[in-house]
Amino acid sequence: MIRKYLFLVFCIVVLLFCSCFAATDASPKVRNVILILMDDQSADLSFLGTPGLSTPNLDRLIGQGVYYSSAYATSASCAPSRSSILTGMYPHSNGHWRNTVTPTMRHPEVDFGRESSMVDQVRVHESIPTLIEILRDHGYFTGITHKFHLSPPWKFPFEERNPVQYDHVEFEKVIAQMIQQSGDRPFFIQANIEPPHRSFRGKKFFKNMFMDGKLDDPDPDAIRVPDYMPDIQKVRDDMQEYYASVQVSDECAGGILRALEKSGRMHETLIIYTSDNGMPMYRSKASAYPSGTHMPLAIVGPGIAGGQICDQVVSLADLMPTMLNALGLPIPSTVQGESLWPWLSGRGDLPEREYVFTEHNSHGPDLREAFPQRAVTDGRWYYILNLDPTKTQKMPDDLIGAGAWQNKAYPAILDASDEFPEKVKLLTDMIEGRRPAEELYDLEADPWAMNNLAQDPNHSQVLEKLRKLVSERRNNNNDIKKSVTEFYPEK
């Protein structure tokens, strides 16, 4: 309740002081788009009252437009989520259902064409138009930062690629250069920001941001450890590092926005801020649990009134049709999302729907990481169908701290089973193949999805309704695979 009151007060203030963004007949049309896309950030912002966290740049941006409090990714893994944003489709439908091997930003141009030596067997189907192909065909300049992670590379023909990752000064320079490079053409820039992806402050630049006093460390005493994890020191330390990384990403967003403002083209640019999936912790990233799929989402731009909060469920699959609609471009028939632009521009209503869907198949190519799930939510009730419930699931390397990922919390959690048996069991059930076939959570009472109500007779009607929705959707979308091995044709 406290967070809701803080949210309300903030929005009242924004409405008083951000009237310059109110929709009027004189508002200029949308000509450009900047998509600010974080890597592994849950809906954690000081705007939302997240304890111990400061995100002033994103807070200011959000106050100038609409914040969607019930936005969900189509998948809680990087590449499937990003390919959904750029196709308006769900991963099982567009073919990009897991993370893929792709060229990096530093690879030569040949690796982004059909002669590439880095082409994964999992990829977006050739017949599906991507946002970047459509914009190219309509004369747009397109640019992307940080990482590519899209398959096959020629389906995402960005004109300019830059590997800038987490330096806010460099981000300002790179975005300014891309805008200048666009010349008189309209532009689309996908500003991918690396943090809060691990290894958090494992990089020298991160350390200097805090050591030099440019950023303040999140208050360790104020941090709230998610309910599903044991509140032990190493988990608290890990959450502090995650929040510190979110603050670095906020600085990068600030650099991007400064470049846009200095260019003189902010008044004609639609700005979308979101993340690909939830924080890099188990039962969040690489899962269909709400901590991994519930995303921050704000849309700001010409004709959009500031200080708005929308609580209707929306999907990141809605972003492609929204962008095309705002730019006055046709929406392909393959798109499964729905445009939010009629409502954003004050000329129509939100899509008439009560529910959105999400899914998980596998995080990476390793069959041990696969665990196919289908989920549906109305923002309160959250239902998960586990297609292969007794299969064990290997956590991705960054969640367990393998290699250079520096996750010290994971082994400490496993060692805390005597003190926190029920919380540790939530993890061990995942990795040892003991999950139920169905899960049902009341997110109002249980926001971290810990109390499975699927067997509770008091909620049988809700369960049956959501079960039917998932079943009908799978049948209508040719989503017929029933076991994990069916997702691995190369095996």
Main sheet: strand order: 5-4-6-1-7-9-2-10
- Our measurement of the CA-to-CA distance between the termini, rounded to an integer number of angstroms, reads 49 Å
Number of helices: 15
Percent helix, as a range, is: 25-40%
Biggest sheet architecture:
8 strands, mixed
Strand content: 5-15%
Secondary-structure element series: HEHEEHHHEEHEHHEHEEEEHHEEEHHHEH
* Structural class determined from secondary elements: alpha/beta
Q: Estimate the global geometry from the Cα principal axes.
A: globular
CATH homologous superfamily annotation of the largest domain: Alkaline Phosphatase, subunit A
Q: What CATH architecture of the largest domain do you see?
A: 3-Layer(aba) Sandwich
- The total tally of domains equals 2
Radius of gyration: 21 Å
CATH top level class name of the largest domain: Alpha Beta
CATH-assigned fold name of the largest domain: Alkaline Phosphatase, subunit A
* Uncertain stretches of 5 or more adjacent residues: 1-9, 11-27
Arithmetic mean pLDDT: 91
Total number of beta strands:
15
Question: Which features does this protein show?
Answer:
491 residues, alpha/beta, Alkaline Phosphatase, subunit A, Arylsulfatase, C-terminal domain, eight-stranded mixed beta sheet, four-stranded antiparallel beta sheet, 15 helices, 31% helix, globular, disordered N terminus
